[in-house]
Batch of 4 targets.
Target 1
Amino acid sequence: MIRIRSMVLVAALGGLPSVVMTAQTVAVLPGIPSVNVEERFQNAPYSAQRRFTSVDTLVDGKINRSESGGSEARDSQGRTYSVGERHWTYQGALKSEMLYRIHDPVANTDTSWDSSSKEVKVIHWPQNVSNDEASSAQCQVCLDAMTSDLEASTEKLGTKTIEGVAAEGTRRSYTIPAKQGANDHPIVVVHETWYCTQLKIVILETNDDPRSGTTRNELIGIVRGEPDVKKYNPPSDYVIHELQMP
């Protein structure tokens, strides 16, 4: 593989060349709870398939259902591997690609590439910086800001077995008042997560929003133990761009 090393600033962290997209985009991404990085990753190896399902009702009353697939894994050292399928509509034609990502907290790198180009981006983070912790904190701040003025509630759902593992459920809901946006009546949005403390990962996540429909993001076929990560290696003919964060 050809390697290109360069120094970049954080502002240059945009993804690989993107495509102008219209209509809806569906991507499968791993569910990552906001917990301490060390607790999240170490000594909890697994591999599984991930399935993302979206169902919404169109203006003409028809039901639009889409489904994407992927897979993910984590070794006992905390390295995480994921591949997800993304669909979109461009000029009336359905397009798709596979997105790959490897997060290595041992080497403190993030590696990503996709099936539509032959380029791999490897980001080298400073050893004293955890980009996962920063991302989790930013996501929580955004969530709090979006729901701070809404009538929100949280409910613990107890524990149940999903795909052979025990998971703890949490349901969060908030109400969007009438006339806030295009809605004539109050809208209740319900977000539900089922988190496995043994694997330290979200097994099932659903979101029910009358404005956009229902989504379901879930792990299936879970296998505990050290995964075979050979399928997550980038193709040998891809050009590797190594980016060092200052």
Note: Helices lie at 37-41, 131-147.
Target 2
Amino acid sequence: MKKHLFILALFIAIFLGYVFPQLSEVLPLAIITDVGIGFIFFFYGLKLSTAELKTGMRNYKLHILIQVATFVIFPSLVLTFYPLVTEGENQTYWLAFLFLAALPSTVSSSVVMVSLAKGNIPAAIFNASLSGIIGVVITPLWLSFFMEDTQGSISFYDVIAKLSIQILFPLFLGFALHKFTKTLVNKYKSKITIFDKSVIVLIVYNSFSHSFKANIFNGLTVWDFLAILTGVAILFFTVYYLVNYISKRLHFSREDQITAKFCGSKKSLVHGSVMLKILFGNSPNAGIFLIPIMLYHILQLIVIAIFANKLEQRSTTSY
């Protein structure tokens, strides 16, 4: 239910961005979200456990498969359509899909779903954490190869520096303080989650308000939206079943198969929102890049939740 409320909040943020776009000029949202981003990853670092990470490091084949799926298979699938992309709006939407495909895996929902389906929880925690760190370099690197043709060139090293300051530094600071604050973090875990999601909602509002003011979506028809939704669904199910097939061919245990396909098919709305803000700032095009990410986020929550429940039921009946 909490996940559904978050999704509802995202749509409300888009609606408010359309009806009241001037709020982004009245409130210092850029400063608020910048500070909020730092705290998101600081709190995430506080929640990381050294013992859990060490336990999860052991199964290297599983880790390689998940990271290859996240940062190689996903972008490669989108790259196959690059020759079909013409200049202008279509190329912008293609780049939005490439950005989605290059994002790291989500953290909390991957671990929760793996736990529900009786998968390898330590491996899920390790891979989700590793994915977020790798994504700081890999995601902007993928984009840097194509941004010059569409949105204007980006400085790869400048982006890495900004991401390091806003993501890696607070993350490692929180991780260093974990053993001193783990009791406090566990006590206020739900409130920290609400804070994280509130910052994401503000980023979504800010991005869409600038897009609406610049009339970026004037040419977006219902058919265009359905095409984006279809593309998102195809991308998700292709990777999900491909990772499932590979994990079976590698003779993974049932628990590792669940972890591989759940973690390997996920994409992080948190990292996507944060990286968009750093890459584009208040650029009107940021709203376009958020559409595939938000649709993918909703789809993966619904579908993986259904799959996790089915796997959990099978596990229960087998005992």
Note: The chain has one domain: 2-312.
Target 3
Amino acid sequence: MQKATQPTLYFIGVTTKSSSIMKVFPKWADALGLKDTVIKGIDLPLHAPKEQYREVISFLKSDPLSMGALVTTHKIDLFNSANDMFDYIDPYAQELSEVSCLSKKDGKFCAHAKDPISSGLALENFVPENFWKEHNGQVLLLGAGGSSLAMSLYFGQEKWGDNVPSKVILANRSTPRLDSAKEHLKRVAERINLICKHGPTPADNDAIIADLPPYSLIVNATGLGKDAPGSPTTDNVKYPENSLVWEINYRGELLFMHQALNQKDAKNLHVEDGWIYFIHGWTQVISEVFHIPIEGETLEKLSKIAKE
């Protein structure tokens, strides 16, 4: 972390050099007229010490040309370690106790949780309209980190009426993270049938998946397959028929996705990767950091640039 000499957007993660955004952002910056703006990665180990998170926040807050950041993997840990250092915390970030976007506006250093918006936009790209109302399926979110909490918040919005999953299940290998999720999702649990389950091993997750009804949604929100090797399920996993399987990562070994693809035809599964989530996740942050609207034709243009 060295003093920025030109407008800089940061990517706070674990293996940021491997991300496609490092090649995509310069072309996006040109298309958006963000002259001389660059992107830099800040890599931290999983569940880094509190002091490291505070050091990063102190640097970004005080450096004039450090414009903001996208946060992945560390969303909850960073918030818990440094929430007293923010001048403004948006309502989603307050409710979820996580931060996925850092920005500056009117002299204030701001924390945002964009995942309820970006994950919702990604889900609406492949989940059929009225899917839950028509089929009464369930949602299984593997992992109880920031992405799963954000998706739970998305499903629990009052605007959906009766078009909601019959159950939303959060499964995680450690109980403290599940306890934390329950606490943050109390208000959501008043609107939807929210259940937390302990799944310490991939075999345990296999058993949870086997109990799901047809027309369910199973999401890998663990980071396994990207930030760490492996999958939250085994090769013996048996998916319910006519279901949706979402690997929210778009890079890495993606073992979870390949396990699902092996059953795609036999079980009539729709298997989705994390590319659209990647696009919405980044464009939501760039829009906030640089105070420019990114939607409609602009969004389509950026998506085309990224694909190319």
Note: The chain is about 40% helix and 20% strand.
Target 4
Amino acid sequence: MSDTPKFEVIDRRKIKAEEEKEQAPEKKPEREAAPSEPPAGPRLVTSEPQAPAPERAAEPEEEPLGELPPAPSAEESRQQKTAYDASAQRIEDLVRAQNPGMGAPPPVGFEHLVQQLYLSAMIQMGAGTQEGQRARVDIMGARQTIDLLGVLAEKSKGNLTEAEDRMLQTVLFDVRMAFLELTNMISMQGVQAPPPPPTKKR
């Protein structure tokens, strides 16, 4: 014997509809529900277990930059690198022909990348401004450049020499400190009251 109490659900709307039909016979009867439609009114919900809904396959996350073209093959990359090196050498020969005293440029290394980002961040924060000129500050550009250094430090972790890692961490600390000092100065200027207007001499 089941412990679930049995009860009957009475649809009060049907009783009321019949009473209204008796009182107003000229009124058109309501449209009966089609056999394919579920019956109106409350329904008794049984406690029978239902089959779980099929799980939807996880949709792959969309690429942040949209669909990327296929990567070049190893042979394509090799050919392109060879052509690039030859083109760069031709340009270097032309420049050195115009400047005979110029020596060969040093090969580009990891330290050049860090130095380039460091100089960009400092210039964006107003460094290098000539005396007597007003510094032009690009605070949002400086933040992006500093964040690029942070991304470089995160992605190259475990793949740098001790000297490279020390240089990168030192540069990152330096530009972040400069950013903090600059933003504090900007905040202080923003809350200070404007100077009073100059008084007119009588």
Note: The chain is about 50% helix and 0% strand.
